Amino acid sequence: KKKQYGECMRKATLDLDSLPVIQNNLYQEHPNISLNNQREVVDWHRSLQKTCNGQNVPRPIV
């Protein structure tokens, strides 16, 4: 019988409770973006035909 790739590999056992919590708080607003008022941000989104829905939508990164 011809061996298949990975045939002799063991299945990984992961204890999901022991994994560290991933924090999704990486966004830091650039000071130049902070200077834009909300109207400028909305106009910027419209100029790119971009739609953002939800609460606490981050301001543009560019």
From TrEMBL:
Keywords, in A-Z order: ATP-binding, Helicase, Hydrolase, Nucleotide-binding
A GO MF term: helicase activity
Domain of life: Eukaryota
Name of the protein this chain belongs to: Putative ATP-dependent RNA helicase DDX5
Organism annotation: Parasteatoda tepidariorum (Common house spider)
